[in-house]
Specification:
The chain is α+β, with helices and mostly antiparallel strands and 169 residues long. The protein is built from 3 helices and 9 strands, in the order E-E-E-E-E-E-H-E-E-E-H-H. 23% of the residues are buried.
């Protein structure tokens, strides 16, 4: 659990050169002698979901925030929350559907928002319960190949979706 980041040698708050110190149970960590604080990795964590209706074998894609392209349902992990709960909570909040079964796919760091994105597959209990909330402008169910063709080209969502679809063959 020791944490030394050679690329971050100065305190981001005050600019002081980090020292290192032994922290009980953690090993060696960077320490700012001026702020008197230990330095750990700081980034956001979010989940994106490939929402699947297992009966019809269709994937839900959404449009939101006034943008005219399709994305995956997604949301940030709250402090104190486990990622599995984020997945179930966001699917319920944004679509009104119960996640029957969830499984982790893979992750990717997204530099622009300093976010580690965790991608999941969510098999919903009942697709007819779909009731998009105010965050979603529109949404549609697509066959697997239609979803591949409609997700925003070049997006992280496309990378996750293609990766998952390729693994289903
Ligand atoms: Zn400092």
């Amino acid at each position: 659990m020791a944490y030394i980041n050679e690329n971050e040698r100065y305190c981001t708050k005050c600019g002081t050169l980090f020292e290192t110190r032994e922290l009980e149970g953690e090993g060696t960590v960077q320490y700012c002698p001026r702020c008197k604080e230990d330095h750990f990795p700081v980034f956001n964590t979010a989940c994106s979901m490939i929402v699947v209706d297992p009966k019809e074998k269709k994937i839900l894609l959404i449009k939101q925030y006034g943008r005219d392209w399709y994305a995956l349902v997604a949301g940030y992990v709250n402090r104190g929350e486990d990622a599995e709960n984020t997945v179930r909570r966001e699917v319920m909040e944004e679509t009104g559907m119960v996640a029957r079964e969830i499984s982790f796919n893979r992750s990717k760091y997204f530099e622009r928002s300093n976010t580690l994105m965790l991608n999941w597959t969510v098999y919903v209990e009942d697709a007819s319960a779909l009731k998009p909330n105010w965050e979603i402008d529109s949404c549609s169910w697509f066959t697997f190949e239609e979803a591949r063709a409609n997700i925003k080209p070049g997006s992280l969502a496309e990378w996750f979706l293609d990766s998952w679809l390729d693994s289903q063959k």
